[in-house]
Design brief:
757 residues; mainly alpha; Phosphorylase Kinase, domain 1; Transferase(Phosphotransferase), domain 1; Serine Threonine Protein Phosphatase 5, Tetratricopeptide repeat; six-stranded mixed beta sheet; two-stranded antiparallel ribbon; 10 strands; 44% helix; 5% strand
């Protein structure tokens, strides 16, 4: 099948030379590696997933690349974008996800409930999109290691279409393919029973149920069980343990658990379709008021510059050991006391604990009081305090019992500790005070308690964040009001953290309109810049918060301030395709032809990303369609390079020059379209009088490039419109010579025998 017909305008074969030389390995699996690479032209990072031919089999990569060429055209917010393949490296080229896999993050961080709900909903959205295809596109490989997370910890589903059910395939072969990739925990029971049906959408729904359990518990299912035991348990109806799900959870979590149990029902026909799951998880998300996209600052990992305020590093978690972990090294009852707390046998604990026990130090410098607070039993905490426990003792990471109580929202224990002299201002090793954690959690009751006991509303942690920053970022309006009432005007107008961001920056980045109004009412400067020279308008425009942008524009903010890379708010809105925001900015005087440090205008960026409505808005307000950027590339060059045929049509209708040459190698948009193997773009260009015999600096015509890339449709189109097959490039080769060297035999036949319409 002709590559153009198979995947029009979507798929390309990258060369190794398309990437910069420094390939950074970011993951390694049984069948290959994943590298972080940078595309020279785009100046953006991509992921290069290579496949080891010796391990995968000779035909595996060919099958993968064929399938990728078919699914590359799928574009959706919650599935991984696939840009093409790199045949020279036996690799698939994909969107790069800075935060890696959900599997790794669940093991290394403790997520707050809001984020867990959001991730579950986003996964269901992505799977619903795949299943809405005609016919449904089955994943058959859904697991936490194939769920990746972007800069803002939003979900992207990857590796869909890698495993496929083929006609005549046996269940044994399918099981071999699944278990080879470590999928045993996610396989529904019907696959390894006598059921002869081919897998359907219910297969993925079952896998999703297991993924839900992992997110809710942050544990691995069937930990320590060998494969045969897992298969036996699952076939008998056993599922991951529900008791592991934390008791301290939102009421809405019970509804999620009900959905999860329906998803892993033994009978496939009883599992709900993703179209139903999406609606239910969306409702639960609305109840919890999940915040929007953010950039974050909590520094918990020395190798990762910033993490997220709704995510805590596991080194901060105070967990009670399981009873199975308390049987050894117990000569003096050291762990036996803790075991009583683990079993919630608080009466026996209070009867057994002695004064000397409160002085015992456990791993990480934890004390008995730390564990008792973590148990949540106020009477036991009171008893341990009465035995002389030091109320302000700290763990190795600086956590006081008060911080633990604040993290767990144990209001009665918080009051008890404060009554016994707990220091409301004492922070951990990162100088996060109890007030910081309460502000992060949106716990206004605790905020009031702490402020009454002398907590400092303007306290700054190590990276300069005040509790107000956290409340603004997480959208806790009541907490913001409480903190503003205790802060001086100077402390609310322009407090900055290490990257120079004010509370207003954060509220605008999140899209919390009411908080933005509060801050502006207190005199916050809407034109203040962070250390990257970004204003609140930059952040709101980039994240697509229309109402926040509208509010800022009423304050007569400067629309053409450039950030450290030369991007104005209009550049960012155009890049992200926020057409409404672009129109607002243009109506308020934003310059449609401003250039970044690389020479890109908003028109270039909109064309690059395929946002045709933005292109139209920019052109109608004076945006140039023929402006040259880096290396002399015009928006039309970029649209052709990305195979964005709709944008090409809009640019040509707006009088973009189809014969304009870029500066470095003299390529016209038609050269680029032929190289990108985009037949629709070629047709648009030809219909607007593009010169089919134009030569670049190497004397190559579009026909030379079409012959090299082997697209029959494009070669036919060029020949029908007068392409001269006798022209030679600078090496003396005709298009026929190139097709022969490239072994494009169908092209060779066309060029040898001629083509008649």
């Amino acid at each position: 099948m002709d590559c153009c017909d198979r995947s029009p305008g979507q798929f390309r074969d990258f060369k190794k030379d398309d990437f910069e030389a420094d390939w950074i390995k970011v993951a390694e699996g049984k069948f290959g590696q994943v590298y972080k690479v940078k595309v020279k032209l785009w100046r953006e990072k991509c992921a290069l997933k290579t496949f080891d031919a010796t391990l995968c089999g000779n035909n595996f990569y060919r099958k993968i690349s064929d399938e990728v060429s078919n699914i590359a055209k799928l574009k959706f917010k919650y599935i991984m974008s696939i840009y093409g393949v790199c045949s020279e490296a036996n690799a698939v080229v994909m969107e790069y996800m800075t935060n890696g896999s959900l599997n790794n993050l669940l093991a290394s961080h403790n997520f707050m409930w809001k984020k867990k709900f959001q991730m579950i909903h986003e996964i269901s959205m992505g799977m619903n999109f795949l299943h809405s295809m005609k016919p449904p596109l089955l994943h058959l490989n859904l697991k936490t290691s194939n769920i990746l997370l972007d800069d803002h910890l939003h979900v992207k589903i990857s590796d869909y279409g890698i495993i496929q059910w083929e006609d005549g395939m046996s269940k044994t072969v399918l099981m071999e393919r699944l278990t080879a990739r470590g999928n045993i925990n996610y396989i529904p029971p019907e696959v390894f029973t006598q059921c002869s049906d081919s897998p359907g959408t219910a297969f993925d729904v079952y896998s999703f149920g297991i993924v839900m359990w992992e997110i809710l518990t942050q544990q691995k299912p069937y930990a320590g069980c060998v494969m045969t035991k897992v298969l036996l348990q699952v076939s008998k109806g056993k599922r991951p343990c529900l008791e592991i799900i934390p008791e301290k959870r939102p009421q809405e979590c019970d509804e999620l658990i009900t959905i999860m149990k329906q998803c892993w029902d033994k009978k496939p026909q009883m599992r709900p379709p993703f179209s139903d799951i999406v609606r239910k998880t969306e409702t639960l998300n609305d109840v919890l008021k999940i915040p929007g996209q953010i950039t974050c600052q909590r520094n918990c990992d020395t190798e990762q510059r910033s993490t997220y305020p709704w995510m805590l590093s596991p080194v901060h978690k105070i967990t009670l050991p399981k009873s199975s972990e308390t049987s050894s090294d117990d000569q003096h009852g050291k762990y036996g006391i803790i075991a009583m707390l683990s079993k919630k046998d608080f009466s026996s604990f209070r009867q057994s604990v002695k004064r000397e026990d409160v002085q015992t130090q456990y791993s990480g410098r934890k004390s008995l009081l730390h564990f008792t607070v973590a148990s949540g039993d106020a009477e036991s905490v009171k008893h341990v305090l009465s035995l002389g426990a030091e109320v302000n003792c700290t763990t190795a990471r600086g956590y006081t019992p008060l911080i633990i109580a604040v993290l767990q929202r144990f209001s009665d224990i918080i009051s008890l500790l404060l009554e016994h002299g707990a220091d409301a201002t004492q922070g951990d090793e990162d100088q996060w005070t109890p007030l910081h954690f309460a502000a992060q959690n949106g716990d206004d009751r605790t905020i009031r308690l702490l402020l009454e006991k002398g907590a400092e509303a303007d306290a700054q942690e190590k990276a300069g964040w005040m509790p107000l920053h956290l409340a603004c970022q997480n959208g806790h309006e009541t907490v913001v009001r409480l903190l503003l009432s205790r802060l001086s005007e100077d402390a609310t107008v322009a407090p900055e953290e290490d990257e120079g961001r004010t509370p207003l920056h954060l509220a605008c980045s999140y899209g919390h309109l009411n908080i933005v109004k509060l801050l502006l009412g207190r005199g916050a400067d809407p034109d203040a810049t962070d250390y990257f020279f970004s204003t609140a308008l930059h952040l709101a425009a980039e994240q697509g918060h229309n109402r926040v942008v509208r509010l800022l524009l009423t304050k007569e903010v400067k629309t053409d301030i450039s950030n450290i890379r030369g991007y104005t708010p209009l550049h960012l809105a155009a890049l992200k395709g926020h057409a409404g925001i672009c129109r607002q900015l243009l109506a308020n005087g934003a310059n449609p032809n401003s250039k970044t440090d690389q020479g890109w205008t908003p028109m270039h960026l909109a064309a690059l990303r395929g946002h045709d409505s933005v292109v139209v808005s920019l052109e109608s307000t004076g945006g140039s369609v023929n402006v040259k950027g880096q290396n002399g590339w015009t928006p039309l060059h970029l649209a052709c390079h990305q195979s964005e045929s709709e944008v090409v049509a809009k640019l040509l209708a707006a009088k973009a020059d189809p014969n304009i040459k870029e500066d470095s190698e003299g390529w016209t948009p038609l050269h680029v379209a032929c190289t990108s193997v985009s037949f629709p773009c070629v047709l648009h260009l030809i219909s607007h009088q593009a010169d089919v015999n134009v030569v670049n600096s190497g004397n190559a015509t579009p026909l030379h490039l079409a012959a090299q890339h082997g697209c029959v449709s494009i070669v036919k189109g060029l020949l029908m419109n007068g392409a001269d097959r006798t022209l030679k490039d600078s090496s003396g080769s005709t298009a026929l010579n190139i097709a022969q060297r490239s072994e494009k035999w169908e092209i060779v036949e066309l060029l040898e025998n001629g083509y008649e319409a």
